[in-house]
Q: What sequence folds into this?
């Protein structure tokens, strides 16, 4: 009798130890998550973005002061330009602060965290995780990560079990290489419901730029971190992305990149009906404009995005905006180079160019946060989509073959993959990080791999375009991007093919 009793005791003890280990692991992940979120918020906030911009202005002033008097006299308008620059920085900072005020962090960011250094080194500095807050998991399609806000607000959800570490490179050369990822042990989910949220948080900065008592405690400067300049660069990149997606100035770029995709979807799904709209996934959705446009054309559209920087901003524009042109930003102030005039550099841009909530969204529009590979590798995703649209996305892969394999798997038989973009592999120049795989295929090889995974090419062309470029700059980087439509063969045809 005593033997089974002992066995039971041993088993119970092992279970308790397992539980304890899981609790410890969860605590650690939570602490890492808080740290990375604080870092992102810090990059957006007072001690980073505005300070770095102010430091630039001080540098211009120092150079100006070094000029001989005769040269200074020729540039007598410079001091007033510096003051204008400062006003523009303030305006951008106000916008950013408004945006952060609306952000619902998935964790209590004001709590003390203690993360041992050795472990921290393994986690990407801008790695973003989240845990479920108060959302009801209606689990649409993307495994447990899908989390639908029942009420009126975006919601953050949790996916257990993923643990990839990602250090994507950062730099303006890489289109949208924001270098931050929602991966690691959790995946963030953020979903916009059709009932778009329309409430404003209390304004929290007074006219002197001081934070009022109504502010969220996690915005308190005392818990913000000093972040490296690369993080500030990410904020500047986001500002440029806002123009691409949500300003009239971005229309030309959207016409080059998004319009061909939208026209292709229109012609491929001529007979789509309101009662049963086709489902379209947009991985790497950035700030969400393309996903929204697809939704407005009668598709159940889902954007997928793993960057908290992007998600915070797209959520703000999609969920909070009450009218077109609600905010004014100054996206081009951060470079003195290649300007035709100071007025060009300091010009305001009003955003958004449309009111998203009035744009005519089709029921089911959503944004799912998380790593494309982790979220859409889930068995529930197999054959779930009528169309997958990738725009400036496939070269963000560590392993592009894996992306293609997943795209094929999640498409229905006969479903289409529309792609637009270059092959500027994001991890191609990440040196010295042994674990960072980067498979950099030529276009020819990409097509060969796609054929292997059951695609056939229906349309192919090259499209000349820019990416987040200042349209009035004397320097315009151009891509000769690959556009294609590929269709997933049906297994029946596959088998009957000799
Ligand atoms: C170059 S941007 C393109 C954004 C948008 N499609 C556009 O055309 O403006 C690539 C986007 O993919 C996102 N991304 C990169 N890797 C991802 C991944 N594994 N899963 C989900 N999103 C990813 C990045 O955060 C970034 O927003």
A:
């Amino acid at each position: 009798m005593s033997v089974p009793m002992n066995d039971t005791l041993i088993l119970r003890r092992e279970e308790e130890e397992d539980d304890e280990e899981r609790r410890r692991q969860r605590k650690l992940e939570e602490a890492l998550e808080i740290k990375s979120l604080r870092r992102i918020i810090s990059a957006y906030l007072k001690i980073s973005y505005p300070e770095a911009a102010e430091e630039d202005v001080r540098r211009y002033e120092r150079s100006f002061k070094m000029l001989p008097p005769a040269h200074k006299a020729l540039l007598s308008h410079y001091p007033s330009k510096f003051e204008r620059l400062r006003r523009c920085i303030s305006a951008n900072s106000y916008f950013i602060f408004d945006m952060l005020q609306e952000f619902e962090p998935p964790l209590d960011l004001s709590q003390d965290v203690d993360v041992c250094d050795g472990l921290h080194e393994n986690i990407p500095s801008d790695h973003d995780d989240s845990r479920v807050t108060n959302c009801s998991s209606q689990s649409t399609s993307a495994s447990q990560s899908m989390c639908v806000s029942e009420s009126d607000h975006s919601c953050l959800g949790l996916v257990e079990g993923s643990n990839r570490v990602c250090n994507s490179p950062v730099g303006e050369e890489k289109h949208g290489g924001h270098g931050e990822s929602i991966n690691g042990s959790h995946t963030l989910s953020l979903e916009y419901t059709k009932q778009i949220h329309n409430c404003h948080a209390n304004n929290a900065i007074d006219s002197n730029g001081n934070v009022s008592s109504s502010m969220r405690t996690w915005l308190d400067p005392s818990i913000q971190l000093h972040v490296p300049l690369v993080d500030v660069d990410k904020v500047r990149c986001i500002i440029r992305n806002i123009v691409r997606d949500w300003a009239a100035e971005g229309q030309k770029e959207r016409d080059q990149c998004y319009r061909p995709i939208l026209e292709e979807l229109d012609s491929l799904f001529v007979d789509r009906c309101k009662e049963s709209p086709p489902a379209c996934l947009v991985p790497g959705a950035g700030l969400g404009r393309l996903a929204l446009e697809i939704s407005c054309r009668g598709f159940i559209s889902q954007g997928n995005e793993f960057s908290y920087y992007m998600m915070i901003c797209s959520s703000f524009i999609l969920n909070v905006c009450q009218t077109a042109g609600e905010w004014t930003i100054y996206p081009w102030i951060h470079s003195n180079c290649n300007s035709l005039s100071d007025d060009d550099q300091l010009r305001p841009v009003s955003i958004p160019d449309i009111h998203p909530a009035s744009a005519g969204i089709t029921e089911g529009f959503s944004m799912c946060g998380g790593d494309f590979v982790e979220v859409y590798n889930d068995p529930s995703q197999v054959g779930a989509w009528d169309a997958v649209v990738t725009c400036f996305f496939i070269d963000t892969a560590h392993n592009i073959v894996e992306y293609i394999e997943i795209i094929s798997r999640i498409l229905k038989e006969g479903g289409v993959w529309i792609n637009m973009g270059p092959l500027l592999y994001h991890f191609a120049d990440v040196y010295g990080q042994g674990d960072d795989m980067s498979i950099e295929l030529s276009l020819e090889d990409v097509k060969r791999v796609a054929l292997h995974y059951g695609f056939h090419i229906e349309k192919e062309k090259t499209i000349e375009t820019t990416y987040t470029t200042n349209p009035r700059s004397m320097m315009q980087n151009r891509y000769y991007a690959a556009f294609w439509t590929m269709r997933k063969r049906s297994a029946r045809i596959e088998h009957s093919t000799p």
